[in-house]
């Protein structure tokens, strides 16, 4: 009886972590920090104006909550072929004299996801309009915004639970280059968890760590840059 009770507690704690991690990604919560807001006073120009870009993970995307770790080996955001998703705004809208330059991105995909808990299967679905807001500074910030319900993580196996992300701003940093670099380090993410017995419905947040290479699709040889 003691062993069964211990196992139940371990599964509950582990599943809590997996479901909490559902609020991601980076892809990619919480509110913007006061520090990020303070940086918004400066000017920002993102170049080259009007070019499309794509993002691909560099290394694993890691989602954590308590003792549980979820790792996704594949995460991308690609232009849709029409519209303004994954497009630097055309001039003059690629420049803001007193704040960040913002745009929409295709909801990133998260695939080949595994957990550190045996017997739990993980799948992630994303949807809706996601956005990115880039502000020149030291460092350059790149905040990712997600809609309510924009990411849903499903757990099956030892437990059956669903974690759904809330509307969020995930604070990250940008480094110019070809490719440019996006990085998110243990960014906090809100989550709502539902499911049957054993699902940790009291969990409300998780963290995301991820790095992405961001490349110019219009002209692959061109560097993506953020300047004042």
Task: Produce the secondary structure layout.
Elements: H1 2-21, H2 34-39, E1 44-47, E2 53-57, E3 61-65, E4 68-77, E5 95-96, E6 101-105, E7 109-115, E8 120-126, E9 130-135, E10 140-146, E11 151-157, E12 161-165, E13 168-170, E14 173-175, E15 180-195, E16 205-216, E17 225-227
Antiparallel strand pairs: 1-5, 1-17, 2-4, 2-16, 3-4, 3-16, 4-7, 6-9, 8-11, 9-10, 10-13, 10-14, 11-12, 12-15, 14-15, 15-16
Q: What does this molecule look like?
A:
The structure is a single chain. The chain has helices at about 1-20, 35-40, and strands spanning about 45, 55, 60-65, 70-75, 95, 100-105, 110-115, 120-125, 130-135, 140-145, 150-155, 160-165, 170, 175, 180-195, 205-215, 225. With about 230 residues, it is mainly beta. Strands 2, 3, 4, 6, 7, 8, 9, 10, 11, 12, 13, 14, 15 and 16 form a 14-stranded antiparallel β-sheet that branches. It is elongated. The N and C termini lie far apart (about 65 Å). About 40% of the residues are buried. Mean pLDDT is about 85; it is low at about 1-40.
Number of helices: 2
| Helix content estimate | 10-25%
- The unreliable regions are 1-40
Whole-Å distance between the termini? 65 Å
Task: Report the principal-axis shape.
Answer: elongated
Q: State the order of secondary-structure elements, H for helix, E for strand.
A: HHEEEEEEEEEEEEEEEEE
Percentage beta strand: over 45%
> Main beta sheet: strand number and arrangement?
14 strands, antiparallel
Structural class designation: mainly beta
User: How many whole angstroms does the radius of gyration measure?
Assistant: 18 Å
Report the strand count: 17
Q: Averaged pLDDT, please?
A: 83
């Amino acid at each position: 009886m003691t062993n069964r009770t211990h196992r139940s507690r371990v599964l509950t704690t582990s599943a809590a972590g997996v479901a909490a991690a559902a609020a991601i990604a980076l892809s990619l919560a919480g509110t913007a920090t006061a520090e990020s807001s303070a940086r918004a006073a400066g000017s920002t120009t993102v170049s080259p104006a009007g070019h499309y870009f794509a993002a691909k993970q560099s290394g694993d995307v890691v989602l954590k909550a308590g003792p549980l770790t979820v790792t996704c080996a594949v995460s991308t955001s690609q232009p849709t072929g029409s519209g303004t998703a994954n497009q630097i705004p055309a001039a003059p809208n690629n420049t803001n004299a007193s704040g960040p330059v913002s745009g929409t991105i295709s909801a990133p995909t998260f695939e080949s996801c595994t957990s550190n808990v045996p017997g739990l299967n993980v799948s992630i679905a994303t949807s809706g309009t996601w956005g990115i807001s880039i502000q020149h500074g030291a460092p350059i910030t790149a905040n990712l915004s997600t809609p309510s319900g924009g990411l849903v993580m499903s757990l099956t196996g030892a437990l059956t639970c669903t974690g759904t992300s809330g509307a969020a701003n995930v604070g990250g940093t940008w480094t110019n280059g070809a490719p440019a670099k996006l990085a998110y380090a243990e960014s906090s993410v809100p989550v709502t968890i539902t499911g049957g017995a054993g699902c940790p419905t009291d969990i409300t947040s998780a963290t995301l760590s991820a790095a992405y290479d961001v490349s110019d699709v219009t002209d692959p040889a061109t560097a993506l840059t953020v300047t004042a």
